[in-house]
Amino acid sequence: MEILLNICLGMGLSAACGFRVFVPLLAMSIASLSGHLTLSPGFQWIGTYSAFIAFGTATIFEVAAYYIPWVDNLMDSIAAPAAMIAGTIVAASSIIQISPLMKWTLAIIAGGGTAAIFHGATTLMRGASTAVTGGLGNHAVATTELGIASGLSILAITLPLASGVVVLVLLFFVTRKGFQKLFKRRRTESTS
């Protein structure tokens, strides 16, 4: 049961990385420093005061950048690989007492993959907002993404199983919506 909780914790934090790269890392650092989170061997550095300061500073800059018009779209392209890497790191750091091969396989697929899917969805949302509002509506998108990243991070640390369920439900809807758009586009291309 502990392994399942660790995987759900990793998935919840990885999904949050798809919305904001540094918010989940900051949450992990705070939870580890306060004794509420045990990190996997080799990842205890996340729970140090140096890491806390670094993640706090990076979070402030990341959040602020998403409120600057046009910089937010640039940040999406920069954050794509960063989200996958952060998703893999948070998943690997939360999976304890499992073989290294299984740990890193789960971290890459469940962690990095989950972060990539959610980051892709947020990039599409921001692109649509920019197209419709000329970037003026992106503040609402940025605030929503920050709220989701913060909420998922807190949920993952406090109730990992619930966060795993939330992430799976969100993944279902995001991938379903993506496949619907893909099939609709292919139907349109084949009829023209």
What does this structure look like?
The protein is mostly helical. It has one domain. 82% of the residues lie in helices and 0% in strands. It has helices spanning 2-19, 22-33, 49-65, 71-94, 100-133, 138-158, 160-191. Helix 2 (22-33) packs parallel to helix 6, helix 4 packs antiparallel against helix 5 (100-133) and helix 6 (138-158) packs across helix 7. The longest helix is centred in the middle third of the chain and has 34 residues, at 100-133. The chain is globular, with a radius of gyration of 17 Å. The relative contact order is 0.19.
Helix/strand class: mainly alpha
The averaged pLDDT comes out at 90
> How much is the radius of gyration in Å?
17 Å
As residue ranges, the low-confidence spans are none
The helix content, as a percent range, equals over 70%
**First-last Cα distance:** 53 Å
- How many discrete domains? 1
* Large-scale geometry: globular
Main sheet overview: none
Describe the secondary-structure layout:
Blueprint: H1 2-19, H2 22-33, H3 49-65, H4 71-94, H5 100-133, H6 138-158, H7 160-191
Helix pairs in contact: 1-2, 1-4, 1-5, 1-6, 1-7, 2-3, 2-6, 4-5, 5-6, 6-7
Provide a concise account of the structure shown.
The chain has seven helices and no strands. The chain has 192 residues and is an all-alpha fold.
Descriptive key words:
single chain; 192 residues; mainly alpha; 7 helices
